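Sample intake — Aldehyde dehydrogenase
Collected from: Streptomyces hydrogenans
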Amino acid sequence: MPTPEAAPVPGLRAARLAVVDPATGEPFDEAPDQRPEELDEVVARARRAWHGWRSDPAARTTALRVAADAVETAGDVLARLLTREQGKPLTESYAEIARTGARLRYFADLAPRTHRIDDGRPVHSEIRWRPVGPVAAIVPWNFPIQLAAAKFAPALAAGNTVVLKPSPHTPLATRLLGSVLATVLPDDVLTVVTGREPLGARLAGHRGIRHVTFTGSVPTGRAVAEAAAASLARVTLELGGNDAAVLLDDVDVDRIADRLFWAAFRNCGQVCMAVKRVYAPARIHAEVVEALAQRAKTVAVGSGLDPDTRIGPVNNAPQLARVEQVTRQALAAGARAAAGGRRLDGAGYFFAPTVLTDVPPDSPVVTEEQFGPVLPVLPYRNLDEAITAANGTGFGLGGSVWGTDLDRAEAVADRLECGTAWINHHAELSLAQPFAGVKDSGVGVAGGPWGLYGNLRPFVVHRPWEEET
């Protein structure tokens, strides 16, 4: 299938934004670098399109099913472009495209339910649901297509229109996705805008936007919330995590080592709900470190386009510098790299898969979100100590417990301060379940019916049983 050109937004004039291949560290293409003031026309067109889009639920269902087909038809070209700009292995890019198609189908078939209130009064009270209006979706660079769909699929299904802004590090696949969907959706129902800041800030604070859904860092999320507050727009914020994996003393290390490793290192560790800290009983701590380090030393690292690659590069130079910084801080404070611990020689943004031991518990690689291929493994003497440590950061996205006694593991999982807890696996989500964090990990709920209702507002109609005379 030839690569379709992303459709230009009428009336916009744009400079260009260089896009870097993280496997080489060199620019390979470019995208429009749109000016913040150009958003006025984009949002106005989205609002005009909203009036027609919200009025026909049956047509929306059909359009979203056709959109899913279109995404899957374009899967090869989308996946390759995604790997080129993001860096992840091609198999992971194909999975991201497949998830996007599945999400469109899921929300196409999901509709809000009218609810009758029976409170004893001589009145029929009925709760109906209405779309909120144009939605701003601001998406990071780690899963640009999948996270975009997680925002626009429920918003579109609810009857809203969407202005979608990807990260300037990964604009190309999202623009291509917008072009693919433009062939099957009405004009201006979904518009992709690309560019550097302050484009995103202006979009979040635009008075024509009624819901802002954002995934990214905590500081940027706070800024997004402040910008949206000026127009009293609704906000949904997914602000990352520092997920802990707590291993119990009955865990079978050999049995869970592969699952635990990939829960931490998939997508080069650039996953908001990846395992970012492991707490292991002191008795088996060395065994856990060795099992993870052996996998880190032998896993194939390289360009995501190479079919043998399992871990690609860090996506961008600033994030690579961040990963290097937290690793050096830990090593300087007394930690030891059982595997990795350094940037790899040669071109591109490659960092060796790293397993750290003897890490001070107050090291930034433990207390902050490193968002890269670095995993600290910390020992604990008693379970209460481990749970306190797992809950001891400002994050609360996910967590997991690993052990043989599932009832005991579930009881421990119930003590974790997070939005989702897994037992003997991690970071696996169904399209039908809610996804939300606590503490600094976010505001609002995505996923399942909750994601749909997050894009709707209640509308109540009261009607008397009998007309008064």
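Post-analysis note: Residues 23 and 348 are 4 Å apart (CA to CA).
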